[in-house]
Design a protein that fits this description.
The complex is a heterodimer of chains A (160) and B (320). Chain A has 160 residues and is an alpha+beta fold. Chain A is 32% helix and 16% strand. Chain A has helices spanning 24-31, 88-95, 105-118, 124-130, 142-156, and strands at 3-9, 12-18, 50-53, 56-59, 72-74. The longest helix of chain A is centred in the C-terminal third of the chain and has 15 residues, at 142-156. Chain B starts with 7 loop residues before the first strand and ends with a helix. Classes of the chains: A alpha+beta (160), B alpha+beta (320).
Chain lengths: 160, 320
């Protein structure tokens, strides 16, 4: 059986036919061709597939597509403006060298975005907690934490 | 990328509708809430339902409130919502400890407390805290509702007393007296996305005649657990109630029974706590697994139970 779901993806309304067996990640990557969101473990344990649903960081690889109906989804593709201007977090990740192989980066940025929208001036502990579900095998996290701190200080809230 | 075998997906608007669909489809159907266990189980082929009945759109099952001396948590309440609740932080400390270290933010944002209990993993982090708080679960079926103590709800790994056509709707806990606090210790290698090697929850209610040096020692930034235990030995704190529950220590989350006779009105000290952990070790059926050896788990039950009593005391003293 196929179902029609309506939701907002990166700011645009969309209506699409889906199968109930799909996860949100399957819809994003295999149907819509949005390959920015990565599949790592596929079991909700590595954070590479993190997107925002109604503002909250969620593991899209274990999120049933049927639950997306009526919700608002943001993926890494929705961050840069159409002019090419990068999102503050993207800029901060580049400036602070927080990217090595890049596989974890979209998920890291989406987790960070959800954090900063809720808490614009997080402590280092709060940053660590927010990205505890995002595994990075290259950088050792130091630059990632610095980048999120930098983005918070420069673009979001006040310094802490 | 993996697709699942699910053919139909119902997003019901009422408990009644959920129960009717479950009766109609029987074993072919499965309830789903946050899905963080259900979808992983589907991917692992632990379950192979053709029909999923989503409970997420049922209104009025997500709440944390206190009414008539009872703290009530709706089954669809997410771990993240519990983590943000000042009521839980103040009164059900052990549950707060558990949800703060459960999964990751991504998981806690969708995973529900009802789901954590219905999944009935021996390692379920919310179970030991709820067990020491003498929690009840309320189940609804076609004919009505029933409540049972949480310790009677768990029957085995993945098995509960919930019948096929019942839905877990609420968890309720008696509001603890002001002199009682609880704490949970999830013993892991890594803070996030880990299952405990051993999980211990303690609930402590005291009759303090004299706290002695306890507060002073708690306030020292470098006081060790042993320093704190010594201060406890010297103080005049008597035990009104001490409850212990264990995760990953048996096929089910385990409430340690028969502690009342040992602890009631006794002087709270190292000796008494050793007697308590002896009982806990008798009841525990710890196993060797790749996550931890049985002997190690036993040692940690001893160590952590004592530490948790001290954490509870610290929390009690904060409000004195």
């Amino acid at each position: 059986m196929r179902y029609t779901i309506n939701f907002k993806l990166n700011g645009e309304e969309m209506s699409i036919e889906v199968e109930p067996s799909w996860t949100l990640l399957y819809l994003l990557r295999e149907v819509l061709g949005l390959k920015g969101t990565k599949e790592g473990c596929g079991m909700g344990e590595c954070g590479a597939c993190t997107v925002q649903i109604n503002g909250k960081a969620v593991a899209s690889c274990i999120y049933p597509v049927m639950e997306v109906d009526g919700k608002e989804v943001w993926t890494i593709e929705g961050l840069a403006q159409s002019s090419g201007t990068l999102h503050p977090l993207q800029k901060a990740f580049i400036e602070r060298g927080a990217i090595q192989c890049g596989f974890c980066t979209p998920g890291m940025i989406m987790s960070a975005k959800a954090l900063l929208e809720e808490n614009p001036s997080p402590t280092e502990e709060e940053i660590k907690e927010a990205i505890a579900g995002n595994i990075c095998r290259c950088t050792g996290y130091v630059q990632i934490i610095e980048a999120i701190k930098h983005a918070a200080e420069e673009y979001y809230g006040s310094k802490k | 990328m993996m697709k699942l075998k699910v053919k139909e997906y119902f997003k019901v608007k009422s408990i009644e509708e959920a129960i009717n669909l479950k009766i109609q489809y029987g074993e072919k159907a499965m309830f789903i809430a946050g899905g963080t266990d259900v979808i992983v189980g589907l991917k692992n082929k632990k379950w192979t339902p053709e029909v999923l009945i989503s409970l997420n759109d049922i209104p009025g099952l997500s709440y944390i409130k206190e009414e008539n001396g009872t703290v009530k948590i709706g089954a669809l309440t997410t771990h993240r919502e519990i983590e943000r609740s000042s009521l839980i932080e103040k009164k059900i400390g052990a549950l707060m400890d558990a949800v703060k270290n459960l999964g990751s933010v991504q998981i806690r944002n969708v995973a529900t407390i009802g789901g954590n209990l219905c999944n009935a993993a021996p390692s379920a982090d919310t179970a030991p805290p709820l067990l020491v708080h003498n929690a009840f679960v309320t189940l609804e079926c076609k004919g009505g509702r029933r409540s049972l103590p949480l310790e009677e709800f768990f029957l085995g790994p993945g098995k509960t007393a919930k019948k096929e056509d019942e839905v877990l709707i609420e968890i309720s806990l008696p509001t603890p007296p002001k002199t009682a606090k609880s704490a949970y210790w999830k013993h892991t290698r890594r803070a996030a996305l880990e299952l405990p090697i051993i999980g211990v929850a303690v609930y402590l209610d005291v009759d303090p005649r004299e706290y002695g040096r306890l507060q002073q020692v708690f306030d020292l930034p470098d006081s060790t657990w042993d320093d704190q235990l010594r201060a406890l030995n010297e103080s005049e704190v008597f035990c009104k109630e001490l409850r212990v529950a264990l995760g990953v220590a048996a096929p089910i989350p385990l409430k340690v029974k028969d502690l009342d006779g040992i602890v009631k009105d006794k002087h709270l000290n190292d000796q008494l706590l050793s007697e308590v952990t002896d009982v806990a070790l008798q009841k525990a059926q710890v196993r060797d697994s790749w996550r931890g050896a049985a002997w190690y788990r036993k040692e940690m039950i001893k160590v952590l139970t004592k530490r948790l009593v001290l954490i509870c005391l610290r929390r009690i003293l904060k409000e004195v």
